[in-house]
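Reviewers asked in the last cycle whether our approach scales beyond single polypeptides. To address this, we selected a multi-component target totalling 582 residues and predicted its structure end to end. The input consisted of the following lines:
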Amino acid sequence: MTYKILAILGYLGVVLFLGYRGYKQTKSSQDYLLAGREMNAFVMALSYGATFISTSAIIGFGGAAALFGFPLLWLTFLNIFVGIFVAMVFFGKRTRLMGLALDAHTFPEFLGKRYGSRFIQNFSGLIIFLFIPLYAAAVLIGICRMLEVSFAALGISYEAWLLIVTLLVAGYVVTGGLKAVMYTDAFQGCIMAAMMLFLIVFTYSKLGGIITAHQTLTDMAHLVPAKLKAGGLLGWTQGAKVGSPLWLVIYTTIIYGVGIGVLAQPQLALRYMTVPSDRELNRAVLVGGLFILLMTGVAFTVGALSNAVFFKEFGKISIVMAKGNMDKIIPLYVEKVMPSWFSGLFLIAMFAAAMSTLSSQYHVGGTSLGRDCIDSWRKKGTFTFKSSQLGVFITVFAALVWAWILPGSIIARATAFFFGLCAASFLPIYFLGLYWKKMTPVAAKVSLVGGFCSSMFWLLFIHLKEAQAIGLCKFLTGQDTLVSLAPKGSWLWLLQWVDPNVVALPVSLILAIVFSLFSKSDLERTQLAFKYF
Amino acid sequence: MLGMGSVEMALAYLLCLAASAFCVGYGILHWNDKGKTVEQTILVSKEEK
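The resulting structure, written as structure tokens, was:
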């Protein structure tokens, strides 16, 4: 216990020092919002990666890998290829130049200025400000539950941990802006990478090497729980039966939803505008490609292999060891299987993963309210980072309230929800805005609102998990979803497991293209946006 | 293949490693490529502090 406390205090000392450094270097709104547009490649890449990967990816999705097995590695592949390579090379470079041409400081401001529309800036800012606290609350819940268990001897309640972690992170985000966020993210990213490297080496060694480990898990296919087999899972290294409910959950929500959704994450897109040239983005591809492999690649591999290790050591598979709670599998694995010294350090790594994501969520939520709503409604051309600081404060408070009232087992669902909502609302107008000169302001508005509404409709009335939890469909129609009465096994009935993004993203894309063909482009605005290409 | 129960899973595993190696290769090849240089006139808007 003493060791854990000392390790946490040492870690917090460095984080607070870096936060203070960021605060001292923040003199203008350019510093507060975009870290002065002068970040180096290493800090940028690690900040991007550490923001991208939170406790949700390691604990939540790692636990999901223990349940569903190796198919989740497709998500790692997309995380690396789409989330790093495509993001940096095809989105990052153009976003940086266009952001400079338009003098944009936030993601909503970028979209608003690209189309010369204050509505787009305000509406995008509001979506982010209203929904990012939910995602932040999920991350906050994850780390506070872990601290509650790890420091049970201290008798600190879960609610007290919520307040302590919130105050710690909010302190340096409110005062230090994006510089403080990125410096601390980079430090936290280093800790995460070192811990995950040890985790994978140890796990493979424990099972006798890479191929032997995989073969052991392959031979355990008969131990897959009956409920998962009924859902379509064939085995942890075999995958799921095509078209089964589990196949739909794994491939549409987890892999497609989260894998593609990363491209329209405002807190990540913002980072492209923090570097001075393409060189930093090129170098970030190298750092990010390795970093993500160490994060989700390791978490999903260890998650799946935990079944083999637990079975070898305790005669039970992971979900049985965790008494049915998927979110407890990775913490339990670390506690029961890894060396005792590692559990303290792993706790710090998870603390780091949570803090780095939380700080960026607070920052982007706050600037969306401050810069994109409050400042945008004030006298034109008058900006102040005081309103962004106020926005951060309100976002922090909203996340705290959500964390207080949200139910358990919400981490992975809240993450997928936010990723999906952002993809459906922003991805078509962001991507087409970067590459297509004929994309018009009218089409952008229709696509933005259409993508948002279709995503929300699917969540509230079709997708079983959310529709059932929210209950609006039941209240209005008496059914959990609009298709729950369809014949079991029919394609209509299976829609309940299809992610909103599968429908909402194409709708939003089609709206953007069709309306662009039949409306007028703003030539002057387009020329300004494309002036560096 | 690789001890996996299906070719699809082995492919996912290998593609993760290949994607990561590709990123490393890309980063090395373009290490000093600054791309289009733009005169960085920072258009900081009227600002209150």
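The radius of gyration of chain B is 22 Å. We regard this as preliminary and will revisit it once experimental data from Aim 1 are available.
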